[in-house]
Specification:
- This protein is α/β, with parallel strands linked by helices and about 150 residues long.
- α1 packs parallel to α2.
- It has helices at about 15-25, 40-50, 85-95, and strands at about 1-5, 30-35, 55, 70-75, 80-85, 100, 110-115, 115-120, 135-140, 145-150.
- It has one domain: 4-Layer Sandwich (Purple Acid Phosphatase, chain A, domain 2).
- A 5-stranded mixed beta sheet has the order 3-2-1-9-10, with no helix packed on it.
Amino acid sequence: MKIAVVSDTHNNMANFKKAIEWINKEKIQLLLHCGDICSQETIDEAEKIFDGEMKFVKGNGDYNLDFPEKMELEFNGKNIAFTHFPDIAKKMAQSGKFDLVFYGHSHRAWDEKVGETHMINPGELAGQFYKPTFAVYDTVSGSLELKILEKI
């Protein structure tokens, strides 16, 4: 089973829509958003077109959105946590409780190992500082793919 992970959309619905359309085509049923989606309107629009379930955490740009700062879940035998902030992600990864910890905020795609935990930033969908990217993690094979939006 695959999970799509996005972050730092910053209301760029055109990019988010393109990513969601690809995610739908791949029949991925869970999308984690690591913060800074920035508006309820963007959420509403995304929920209209996404075929699966979306989960959100609060980023520093999500002023009026009522999301938790971090979220933990078990998915297909993997313990997963996600947040917006790298410092919180690092603490969660250091706890040793999780197989994967996803985070955003820096807008830069990154994958590092903290103990036995993969700490992963999917990059940004907004395209503000870097090319728009998102991540796909396969819980069965353990593979992680960075998807560059302009190449899908």
